[in-house]
Amino acid sequence: MAPHQAFVYPVPIQLAGPAFPAAGMPRELPPLTLCVSFVVDTTGKATQVAPLRQTGCDDGASQLSLRDASLSAVAEWTFVPAMFCDYPDAASRDRDWNGDGCAGERVQARVVPVSLAYAFTFEIREGRQRVATRKR
């Protein structure tokens, strides 16, 4: 990025995590991390939702219902879209940009798609279900 530019990450609006299926789960499940990649499009919708195959991520073959729950949850996520801010010069950027959107009267804002990934770790201990969510 040039000194007169800034990038604003997408801001989550709705990020409901995946839930365990109502039936068919074992009483115990060691931690299983499933990762999902997606694109936040220019309208703020999660699109191109897919399993992420990466070190530390299970492929989900042993628990298809959890993989499907992860993909379905992410497909419903919404964001304030990412923006690319162009200022007339570096001094204007330093003075006007506040890190929260494209601020300033002479800024040109472009909404841009951005790729993100999240990991969901499912675990069942003594019948208690737990899902942890983190950004990758």
Question: Which stretches of 5+ consecutive residues score pLDDT under 50?
Answer: none
Mean pLDDT: 94
Report the C-alpha radius of gyration, rounded: 19 Å
Alpha-carbon distance between the two ends: 22 Å
**Count of alpha and pi helical runs:** 2
Overall spatial form: elongated
Provide a short characterization of the protein structure:
The protein is mainly beta. The chain has helices at residues 64-75, 90-96, and strands at residues 5-8, 11-14, 29-40, 46-51, 78-80, 82-86, 108-112, 114-125, 128-135.
Set out the fold topology.
Layout: E1 5-8, E2 11-14, E3 29-40, E4 46-51, H1 64-75, E5 78-80, E6 82-86, H2 90-96, E7 108-112, E8 114-125, E9 128-135
Antiparallel strand pairs: 1-6, 2-5, 3-4, 3-8, 6-7, 8-9
Describe the structure.
The chain is mainly β. It is 14% helix and 43% strand. The strands form three sheets. A four-stranded antiparallel β-sheet has the order 4-3-8-9, with helices on one face. Strands 1-6-7 form a three-stranded antiparallel β-sheet, with no helix packed on it. The model has no long low-confidence stretch (mean pLDDT 94).
